[in-house]
Structure of Thymidylate synthase:
Amino acid sequence: MNEQAYLDLCRHILHNGKDKGDRTGTGTRSVFGYQMRFDLKEGFPLLTTKRVPFRLVWSELLWFIKGDTNIRFLLENNNNIWNEWAFESWITSSKYDGPDMSDFGRRRLTDESFAADYEKEMDRFKRRILEDDDFAKEFGNLGNVYGKQWRAWRTSDGNVIDQLKEVIHSIKTNPDSRRHIVTAWDPEDVPGNMALPPCHTMFQFYVQNGELSCQLYQRSGDTFLGVPFNIASYALLTHLIANECGLEPGEFVHTLGDAHLYHNHFEQIEKQLSRDPGPLPELNIYAPEKSIFDLSIDDVGIEGYHPHPGIKAPVAV
């Protein structure tokens, strides 16, 4: 079963990983170099041992596909997964006029009074992003993150490359090429032009026997919170590009560099590992005649998804 590949990764990290410090100060247990394979003909790999909200996966991927880098689109679709990075840019700016929010990622977990202030300030931030165009332009933009690199890669001569359009054209016109690659890792932008350097850094497509497969290289994977989203997102992208190119979805191969579990996720992952996986859902593209670049949020969905309940865990920022 496809899901077993992910559960095996979690067990492997718990039992064989090494404890390390990390950028967030939370601490991780990690392994380096790990690969999972998902046969997309066996079902859509959305975890069943805990609920993974598909609409959040799809709205984030649609945001990437559109080349958008401002969280306003995400908030309009009730997607809050990028809020903390934009919020941090506001609370560290000279224009912030609220209570001290420094180190909010950890303080909100241990200080109830601070957590209440944080929620109040985050709500105020989100409202301003949605209602104030100038504020959204200044503080909702995350810099040259995924959408920018996929759709408007900056060249040395001042032009841009639409990598996603070019790779689709390449798949259609030269399916046997070994150059069906999209990269989000721009060494020039990483130091200061991105709210978060890309974790899923590069992906490559492969065509064989009328099927499209995709391999992702992910330099860093938050295995409990992030990796389930990444699996679903790139499986979905493979389905969408296969549909665009008149191919069937084949396999999604997920290669990880630093695959880690945060120390404050151990209890949650043990709970998840105690559960039995169920049948995988089916992905439906309700408007298969549309180009991937014209899809809307209601054009894609899943059926037959009956997971165990979700498991909450803190995000390390």
Q: What stands out?
A: The CA atoms of residues 200 and 230 lie 8 Å apart. The first helix runs from residue 2 to 16. The chain has eleven helices and ten strands. The radius of gyration is 20 Å.
